[in-house]
C-alpha cells in the first residue's frame, strides 16, 4: 500500500526561518510514521477491556483522562472515559492482536490511520510558542511529562501531549488532517519571532 500523502506537502519547507538564533528556540518536524488506533467501549465493560489490553501492550492503562503512558515509540492516551488512542509507528500492526484478544461485544477497535497530522515541537522556546495560542498552563508544575490536553489553537482542535523525553522539552500535537495547513500557518507565524528550525519529516 502506498504511503499516504502528507496534508502539509504543499506548505512544508525544511530549513530555518524567523529570528536567527543558534540553536533555534524551536525545532519542528512532522511525524509521518505515527499510526493511530482507537479502542472504545461502554461504561459497564471498559474496565474489562483495559485488563485485557494491559498484557498486550505491556504497560499500565491510564486510569484518568489527560494521562498518557509510553513504551518505546508507542504512547497510549486516555482521550475519554471509555476511549483510548494508541499512537506510534507500529500501532496499526497491533490491531489484529488486539481484536483477537478483546471480547467482541465489549470494545470497538478503529484504525484512525493518518486522520491526524502529527507534529513534534521541541526546544527551549516550545512553551513560549504555545503560549501564543493555547489557553493552557504548560509550566512543569501543571503539565508534567506524559500529560496531555485537548483544546483549541487559532480555532483549530488539537491534542497536545508532553512527551516524556529527558533531554529537552518536547510536545506532540495531533491536528485533524483537514486543518493541517491552517495549523501550519499559525505555527510558522507564531514561531518566527523566536526562531524555528523545520526538519525533514520522519
How do the helices and strands line up, and which of them pair or pack?
Layout (H helix, E strand, L loop, with lengths): L14 E3 L8 E5 L4 E7 L4 H12 L10 E4 L2 E7 L2 E6 L6 H7 L5 E5 L4 E7 L3 H5 L17 E6 L2 E7 L7 E7 L3 H12 L4 E3 L4
Parallel strand pairs: 2-12
Antiparallel strand pairs: 1-12, 2-8, 3-6, 3-7, 4-5, 5-6, 8-11, 9-10, 10-11
Structure write-up:
This protein folds into two domains: 15-32 and 115-198, Probable tRNA modification gtpase trme, domain 1 (Gyrase A, domain 2), CATH 3.30.1360; 35-111, Aminomethyltransferase beta-barrel domains (Alpha-Beta Plaits), CATH 3.30.70.1400. Helices cover 18% and strands 33% of the residues. The protein is built from four helices and twelve strands. Strands 1-12-2-8-11-10-9 form a seven-stranded mixed sheet. Strands 4-5-6-3-7 form a five-stranded antiparallel sheet, with helices on one face. Strand 10 (156-162) and strand 11 form a beta hairpin. The protein has 202 residues and is of the alpha+beta class.
